[in-house]
Write a structure and sequence with these properties.
Order of helices and strands: HHHHEHHEHHEHEEHEHEHEHEHEHEE
Radius of gyration: 28 Å
Helix content: 40-55%
Shape: elongated
Strand order of the largest sheet: 2-1-3-4-5-11
Number of helices: 15
Number of strands: 12
CATH superfamily of the largest domain: Response regulator
Largest sheet: 6 strands, parallel
CATH topology of the largest domain: Rossmann fold
Structural class: alpha/beta
Length: about 350
């Protein structure tokens, strides 16, 4: 029968004390990193069986691969989602993780074609950026690979999600307009495009309700596409126009500002404009547009933090984490015009 290897055998091999071997294998302080590596190597060579904190930590520190997937459309929105992607990449690199990126085509979504690395479970976790489809996302979740959603959620999806506090952000934007004296405030945006846009409509309505302002249904353009002709026609058709607009994103804000300027309406002397996201269009407009800023770097950090936690806590209840927004006041909003 083969002799059982002991700590003393390792100590004799390396000509160090048994206590040093114990400290190295248990992960306790008191020995150098070089000594730890020597002890672990000798333990492996001699066939010493040990179950230590250090060994478990080594196994958990093995390089993991995280997948970041999104629709081809989302990846094309580089100003917004590109910032989040860069933040994810930076955070994973700091932690020693490998990042694998995969755009998902509409054909793949429609036909439930999952990337090969998900099918063969060759990634340790998945970050889904923006929305694909509820059924497709649930197909991914059904694989059992830990998954975190970024900037998307749905009642039928059971997964952790990192989200903007869209309702309160929109509330703050509309509250700003109300505090400037505006009572006739319009909303423009395609609320059916994503849950985020619908939540911003809810925030708009909540602010009006909170301040006792009656909702004018004709001011709510909630089903218009982000296209110049459609927005121009929709505003033109209004029998009476609001003195301020809350726009669901930068694109809508830019197009509403263009309409007003082409119609000879002065911003903000006659009409104020406020939007959401603080993208380039907010800053390129003349005047620059008051907006709700989103910390996109924080999005990436929180998503990575949550996914790493989820990998080690697979049975814990799913949570949604809401990130705050910040009002940036610019030249496009001013006091309501006198009647």
């Amino acid at each position: 029968m083969a002799k059982k290897i002991t700590m003393q055998d390792i100590a004799d091999r390396l000509q160090i004390s048994k206590n040093s071997v114990s400290q190295a294998l248990s992960g306790k302080p008191g020995v150098s990193e070089e000594t730890r590596r020597m002890v672990e190597a000798a333990a492996e060579e001699l066939g010493y069986e040990y179950s230590s904190v250090r060994k478990q930590a080594k196994q958990s520190d093995e390089k993991k691969t995280i997948a970041l997937i999104a629709s081809e459309f989302a990846f094309s929105l580089k100003n917004f989602f590109g910032e989040i992607y860069l933040s994810v990449e930076k955070e994973l690199s700091k932690r020693g993780f490998t990042l694998q990126i995969q755009p998902i085509s509409q054909h793949a979504i429609n036909n439930f074609h999952l990337p090969v690395f998900i099918q063969n479970h060759s990634v340790d976790g998945i970050l889904i950026l923006s929305h694909l489809s509820t059924d497709y996302i649930n197909e991914i979740i059904s694989t059992g690979i830990p998954t975190v959603l970024i900037d998307h959620h749905h009642p039928h999806i059971q997964a952790d999600a990192i989200l903007t506090n869209n309702r309160f952000g929109a509330y703050t934007a509309v509250e700003h307009l109300i505090q400037l004296g505006h009572k006739e405030i319009g909303y423009v945006g395609n609320a059916s495009f994503s849950p985020s846009y619908y939540e911003r409509l809810e925030g708009y309505l909540l602010a009006l309700h909170q301040f006792g302002i009656e909702v004018n249904p004709s001011y709510i353009l909630s089903n218009v596409k982000e296209e110049e002709d459609e927005i121009f026609r929709s505003i033109d058709r209004l029998p009476k126009k609001p003195t301020a607009w809350f726009c669901v994103n930068d694109g809508f804000g830019f197009l509403v500002s263009s309409y007003l300027q082409q119609s000879g309406i002065k911003i903000p002397e006659q009409v104020s404009v406020c939007n959401f996201d603080n993208g380039q269009l907010s800053q390129l407009s003349a005047p620059k547009i008051t907006t709700m800023d989103i910390d996109l770097k924080l999005y990436g950090k929180k998503a990575v933090d949550r996914l790493i936690w989820r990998i080690s806590n697979k049975e814990e209840v799913c949570q949604e984490i809401l990130l705050p927004t910040t009002l940036i006041k610019r030249a496009s909003t001013g006091p309501a015009p006198a009647n």
